[in-house]
Write a structure and sequence with these properties.
Blueprint (H helix, E strand, L loop, with lengths): L12 H6 L1 H10 L1 H4 L27 H12 L6 H11 L5 E2 H11 L7 H14 L3 E4 L11 E4 L35 H10 L8 H5 L26 H5 L4 E7 L13 E6 L54 H6 L2 H11 L30
This protein binds a DNA duplex (16 and 16 nucleotides) through α7.
Length: 373
Amino acid sequence: MDRITSSYSLIPSTELDANPTMADLWQSNNAAYLSQIPTTPNNNNPMQQTSPNNPSLQSLPSANLGYARRYAASKPPYSYISLITHAINGSPDRMCTLSQIYQYIQDRYAYYRQNQQRWQNSIRHSLSFNDCFIKVPRSSERPGKGSFWTLHPDSGNMFENGCYLRRQKRFKVKDKTKDPNKSKTTTKDKIGNLNLNKSHSSSSPLSDHTMGRLDSPGSSPRQASASESLTLPLPSSYYHHPHHQYSQIQSQTNYSNETMPMIKTEYHHHPTSSSIYTPPNYDPNNNGLQYLTSEHNPQYFHGIDQTTPSSSFLHQIAPPGTFRIEDLINGQPDFKSFYSTMTGHETTSNYLDTTNPNAYYYNNNNTTNPPSS
DNA sequence: CAATGTTTAACTACTC
DNA sequence: GAGTAGTTAAACATTG
């Protein structure tokens, strides 16, 4: 693993400037994207200010260009799991195909326009490996390759602690069927557990109809377990009308770790509604980062942007003067230029703009068109 | 055949 | 230092 790809921090320009090796790596790893950023902006030549792929670059103040180049070169401070979660939560019906997830990530983060084979393999691994992601088979009305992916209804807010790099506790389906012959959870285990743990989410579309992992036997043949026989496909109406409504009755996620908040999630299904399935506490205007505010997490913000942050944030906080989480929250100019550079889009919100679903989910050929509603 | 999906393994980094 | 979360690579199966 090279130094660049293993670094999540937003590299301070001084560090890059003082370290030719890092700078060289950075240049080589981001050559394609960096070519879009003019090194010496020419205000008299609009052609040099605008990138076809990243038109927002034209609005970057010249003084910020060097900074922007370095922002773009840095790995976003989000784990793959959080990126996938953002993609799913940002989709109109809370379901994404793999290609949509890819598209979401590389549209928003210039860093992921390179080395696609590497990170896309990691995305696929994360989807398969983590219980919080559930595969939803396609219906005959929505043919295509690959399934949809959604979040487990009980996964709750996995980033409630404000850390988008490392969850405090990995979400695991409870009461897994223990198979002495297998040391790790299998796909079928997930399916079975999804059905065996309906007690507190009995109205969930996932647990009622078992959205997950029904369609593919996977690469490792195994005998069907008793739990598999319990699985049922989703009702066809689900696919016909992806915009179902599940209103939140109570929000509570159970974690085995006592230090985690006790939040249980329950959904009620309103089959006749044209609204959408809404994860607990989901804010459509904040796209998965809704909890990254001092309002929601006052306990985590006392140490932010201070010279001696709380230990739980040590690994998240860039050195003073580089990246400040408060800037991200408050939409400070630095962050907005960062956002523009990373994403190629302007933003007027604190973070990700989810007001225009066309921007991501329906602008590639692999996806369905947005609902005309 | 390429995209998608699953699994294993090795590794790094973080938490306790 | 042990345990855990996340990343990366790789092999392999499945699917459209």
